[in-house]
Amino acid sequence: MDAPGPHISGNILILDHSNRHFFLWFSVGQFFSLHFFYFFLIMLVAGKNKNRMLHTDSNMVTENGNDIISPAKKCDLDPTTIKRFAIGASHTVYITNDGEAFGIGDDKDFVFGTRQPRNYNKVVKIEFQGFENQKFVDVVCGMFYTMYELDDGTLIYCSRFCQKRRPAIHRLKEGDPIFLTGSYFRPGVIDSNGHAYLFDPKNPYNDALKIIITDQQFFDMCIGDLNEDEPNFVILCTRNRKVYGNYKLNHNSDKFVEITQFQNVSVKKVVGNYCHAVVLLNSGFSAYIFACNISPSSELFTLFNGGKFHFIQKFVRTKIVHASTNSDSVLFITSQGDIIVSGINNGGCLFTSNITDINKYLSLKRIRYENQFFTYSWSGYSASCLLAGMKPPIHRGYEYFMFHNQGMKIPNDITWNEKKDNHEEIENQEASIEFWQNQLIHAKTQLKMSHEIKVYTQEEIASMSQKNEIFNSSKTKVIEVDDEKVIKFFIYNDINIHDVFQEWFETYRIYFELNHPCLARIDGVYFGDDSCPPCILMEKMNINLFYLVKGETENQFIRLSDTRKFQILLEMIYIFKFLHSKNQLLYRCLKPQNIILTKSYDVKITDLGVNHLDEYKSDIDYIFEIFKGKVPPEIEYVAKDSSKYDEKVDMFLFGSLLNFLFTGKYPNVTKEGTQISNYLTNRKIKNIIEQCLCFDPEERPTFSHILEELSTGIFLLFDDIDDFLINEKKNQIIQSEEIMEM
């Protein structure tokens, strides 16, 4: 099922609408299947593309006749369906959310385990005899091998050294595999005891070499090698964040020593391949690189003596959240969603758009691609893939050792998965809020901002005098803070963060861009921290139309002056005409409670966003109640199927709204016609209401049509109307709209 969000019906952008009370709330919950509505959710590929191994057609052929992708392009895979992905030298493999494995590329040498020795330019399903009922969990690819992990802990090792296309089947003796990694020539595994294993690249059937360091548990490992004889280095990161290395990191010895550079810092992850490795710190504002036997000379890749890591000075003010390596280069992902590349651009694998950069050396070059927000990268021999608009896959070693294996007591009434989700929510809360902040900053550069929005600090929010509580629910709380502002807190709960961020951002993107006088004004935002949830500050509105007309009790009908009625009518027409004709937005739930008014009776519309479906359904139920179920069939689909209705839904509900404004009652609607209260004597207003409430949507007018109809002799429609005030309001709106079109 698709996540709820903005969608297209005809030429109209549909925005789910329900929350009537000034603000929206977002939480941090599910992370892996997270979509961004503003940034396209894609996998972008570049580099070597033999046999369509990157899941799309090549767009260039080199002088040597090699198929490559440069500039980068979107591949055919849907990242929301994929659990794991890996790139080899001439093949790629992915695992679906359903636990199936698929491969593409050159498998003449059994490097990814198909039954027939051939080149595959279309994906082929991977199956192994005797394991048909098992699901795939993880995969790692090298130059000449692929290793799969099954859900029962079995490791299946496919390699060019396998005999008669028979895979090597491995089971770890003391623990289950919880993290797969590998270099070009050999795979590696970390088990549930925190022990590391290196597999034989030349004889895949041999038992793996086990690595143990007394009193240490590993959660991360990277391997670098230049050939199949011995590793260039192995780097291990322990649960207590110590880093160990051997060979080139220890005078070519196979013994492991602690790398003292990282004794006083918290290491997040280690990545490496071939002849270089990268260490990322938890803070993200520092990255260290180790390189050996690198021929190109640059400020990044040089031959460092004594097994030391080199601190990258340029990253002091750039937060790095992920990195991946191939033979001669590194891709860094920043918290702003950009990529920074360095090394040899083999086959265009570093995502540059300039063809002259192919096979050239690039040094810490920042790459942007069509305003995408990148979150993760995969690197192969001379091919790369970027994930955009989606939370990156979780590091399995970190997940296991930083939570599951730390001795936390799990209550009997909470399952392991629920407990894990709860922990992940708490563990990632701060990082996720920062993640969204960076997305907002990234997106703001693409928006036409109408006025400056203040970003408040926690101290400023705490110092505000909180007066009356206006609204409180399980998701939001709205509090009056002074005579001009209200503040809405967004309460952390189990709401999917994708849906809520869509709602939050799209709503206020509209306010930023439109700045219509009949739209509520946003004064500031606060992103939240452990002590205070996120909130948004907005101008205070005094009352909604329902209470203005009905009063505090059900039968207390307030007789508004003709001037006020027409002012409200005119402003509603202008704002909804503006939304329909200029911006192709539907409101979808026009009812008195959703029309907010200031002290001077100016109409203010709030919550033009993608709101929670359960709340919106309550609005639909309300509509059925006031019409006693007698509504056009299209209304039934408003919360279900946007293809079955258009802007005429707003027109129908606007007719009901007008009837309520002028009579204090809802109309009696039937297929045969509409009965309007005798309280309403104005024939022109009656005709407009009847037209709006037609069962056939084709017979309903547009807001432009209504405005045109009222523009002739409007001051003759009512007995007592202040033509100066009405003209002043009208001119203010027209001038504002003209300014926005400039």
UniProtKB/TrEMBL annotation:
Q: Which residues cross the membrane?
A: 22-46
Q: Which UniProt keywords apply?
A: Coiled coil, Membrane, Transmembrane, Transmembrane helix
Recorded hits in SMART domains, A to Z, give: S_TKc
Q: Which InterPro entries match?
A: Kinase-like_dom_sf, Prot_kinase_dom, RCC1/BLIP-II, Ser_Thr_protein_kinase
Q: Which residues form the Protein kinase domain?
A: 456-716
PROSITE patterns for this protein: PROTEIN_KINASE_DOM
Q: What is an example of a GO molecular function annotated in this UniProt entry?
A: protein kinase activity
Sections of the chain in a coiled coil: 419-446
Pfam families, alphabetized: Pkinase
Q: What is this protein called?
A: Protein kinase domain-containing protein
Lineage per the UniProt record: Eukaryota, Metamonada, Parabasalia, Tritrichomonadida, Tritrichomonadidae
